[in-house]
Every structure is written in structure tokens, then in C-alpha cells.
Amino acid sequence: MRGGLGFLTLIIVLAVLKAALSVIVVAIGLALVVSFVTRPRETLALIITIGLFSMAHAHPVAFVVALAITIGLVWLVWAVGQPARRRTNVARIAASDDDLLR
């Protein structure tokens, strides 16, 4: 009798903990959706970072490959954005040189 009551108490405590954990998971999911709507760039960066770090723990070789690809893509996006800024600066300099020649 005594062991059965303790077992039932343990089952109830574990059920309450499972329900609380489910509520926490749902709340985190909703917070992630809200943050993705309000700040998509930062949220996507967070998701990628969490994915890379979890991959580092589970699959170290895949992590190194994924990290190299991520760094390469970031560099590529940065490099593609640079010439447009340089051209506008060159155009401004050329325009100012034309003003000086007049």
C-alpha cells in the first residue's frame, strides 16, 4: 500500500512536469514566430547559429563543412554588395572632378 501511493505520487509529479515542459515548448515556439515576424534577419541568424552549434556536438566533420560554407556565403554576399558602393563613390568623385574642371 505504501509503495503504491508513492508510485502514484511519482506518476502525478512526472505528469505535471511533462505538462509544464509542453507549455514552455509552445511558448518558445510562439516567441520564435513573433520574433521572426518582427526581426527576421536576427531570428534567422539565431536559428542558423543554434543549428551550427548543435551540429558541432552531433557531427563535428559536418559542422566544419557547414561552417566553411556559411562563412563563404557571408563573404560572397558581402563581396557582391561592395562593388555597387564603390561605383557610386567613383561616380561622386567623377562628378566632383567635372565640377572642378568647369
Descriptive account of the structure:
The protein has helices at 2-38, 40-58, 60-101. The model has no long low-confidence stretch (mean pLDDT 83). It has three helices and no strands. By secondary structure, the chain is an all-alpha fold. The protein is elongated and about 85 Å long. α1 (2-38) crosses α2 and α2 packs antiparallel against α3 (60-101).
Question: What is shown here, in short?
Answer:
This protein has helices spanning 2-38, 40-58, 60-101.
Secondary-structure class:
mainly alpha
Overall number of strands: 0
Q: Specify the number of helices.
A: 3
Average pLDDT confidence is 83
* Tertiary shape: elongated
